[in-house]
């Protein structure tokens, strides 16, 4: 039996400012039957939806997928497969779906895991990935500083235990810093490296902190939507904290 598939879109909605969605992303959001919204827990708000909803028709159908944030691989795999099954059931009925994701779908996104499962059954011609502006690009733009120039390398890392050996690169972006921020700042301080901490870019509560110190965060909970830009030419560029 031939299946008439609907089209599946992975749509990057950028780092936070609804004005930073691409024209293609907006066109997709305005044309699909369903918008799929990933949530770490179903009773929580979705930052991706807060960004995207202004561009969606008022009557668009929404599907919420519970995709928990955990290191338990079995729990993750089960959630990805259940989410993919929900999407496939709709796609088999020729429903088009936009799965929205923060930043870019190809960079540290849950979309990638769902896509791998969907591709086991969904033909390639029914899949379209719509790139989005990354948080690091928005971060550099917000402080009017290039990520890299000339022949300089640019290194992008999640802030895990073994980043220390890479911190001598001239340009480093540290993602997912909320879980290890004081440790990352201590390592940078030991290397004499300067950094900027950017949180909730383009959203209410946005903060930009130049040359943050480990002691600044002894009791402060770090927002998940935070990153560090580490560059050789930060000295004298900015000081203190600015808020939106």
Please write out the topology:
Elements: E1 8-12, H1 23-29, E2 34-39, H2 47-52, E3 61-66, H3 73-91, E4 97-101, H4 110-118, E5 127-130, H5 135-142, E6 155-158, E7 171-175, H6 181-191, E8 194-199, E9 207-210, E10 226-231, E11 241-243
Helix pairs in contact: 3-4
Describe the 3D structure:
This protein has 244 residues and is of the alpha/beta class. It folds into two domains: 8-133, Cobalt-precorrin-4 Transmethylase, domain 1; 136-243, Tetrapyrrole methylase, C-terminal domain (Methyltransferase, Cobalt-precorrin-4 Transmethylase, Domain 2), CATH 3.30.950.10. Helices cover 25% and strands 22% of the residues. It contains six helices and eleven strands. The strands form two sheets. A six-stranded mixed β-sheet has the order 6-7-10-8-9-11, sandwiched between helices. α3 packs across α4.
- Derived structural class: alpha/beta
CATH fold group of the largest domain:
Cobalt-precorrin-4 Transmethylase, domain 1
Note the overall shape.
elongated
The CATH architecture classification of the largest domain is 3-Layer(aba) Sandwich
Range of strand content:
15-25%
Low-confidence stretches: none
- What is the overall pLDDT average? 91
* Total beta strand runs: 11
Could you give the distance between the termini?
55 Å
Please tell me the total number of domains: 2
CATH first level of the largest domain: Alpha Beta
Fraction of residues in helix: 10-25%
Rg computed from alpha carbons, rounded to a whole number of angstroms: 19 Å
The number of helical segments is: 6
Question: What name goes with the CATH superfamily of the largest domain?
Answer: Tetrapyrrole methylase, N-terminal domain
Output the helix-strand order.
EHEHEHEHEHEEHEEEE
Largest beta-sheet details: 6 strands, mixed
Within the largest sheet, what's the order of strands? 6-7-10-8-9-11
């Amino acid at each position: 039996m031939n299946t008439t598939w609907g089209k599946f879109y992975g749509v990057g909605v950028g780092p936070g400012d609804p004005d930073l969605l691409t024209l293609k992303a907006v066109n997709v959001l305005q044309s699909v039957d369903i918008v799929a919204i990933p949530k770490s827990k179903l009773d929580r708000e979705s930052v991706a939806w807060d960004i995207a909803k202004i561009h969606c028709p008022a009557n668009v159908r929404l599907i919420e997928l519970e995709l928990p944030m955990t290191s338990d691989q079995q729990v993750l795999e089960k959630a990805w497969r259940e989410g993919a099954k929900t999407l496939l059931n709709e796609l088999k009925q020729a429903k088009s779906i936009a799965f929205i994701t923060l930043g870019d779908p190809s960079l540290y996104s849950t979309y990638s895991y769902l896509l791998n499962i969907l591709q086991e059954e969904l033909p390639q011609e029914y899949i379209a990935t719509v790139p989005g502006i990354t948080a690091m690009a928005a971060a550099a733009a917000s402080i009017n500083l290039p990520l890299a120039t000339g022949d300089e390398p640019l290194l992008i890392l999640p802030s895990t235990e073994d980043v220390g050996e890479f911190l001598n690169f001239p340009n480093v972006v540290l993602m997912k810093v909320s879980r290890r921020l004081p440790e990352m700042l201590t390592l940078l301080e030991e290397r004499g490296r300067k950094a900027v901490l950017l949180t909730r870019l383009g959203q209410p509560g946005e903060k930009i902190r130049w040359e943050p110190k480990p002691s600044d965060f002894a009791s402060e909970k770090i927002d998940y939507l935070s990153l560090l830009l580490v560059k050789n030419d930060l000295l004298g560029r900015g000081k203190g904290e600015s808020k939106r």
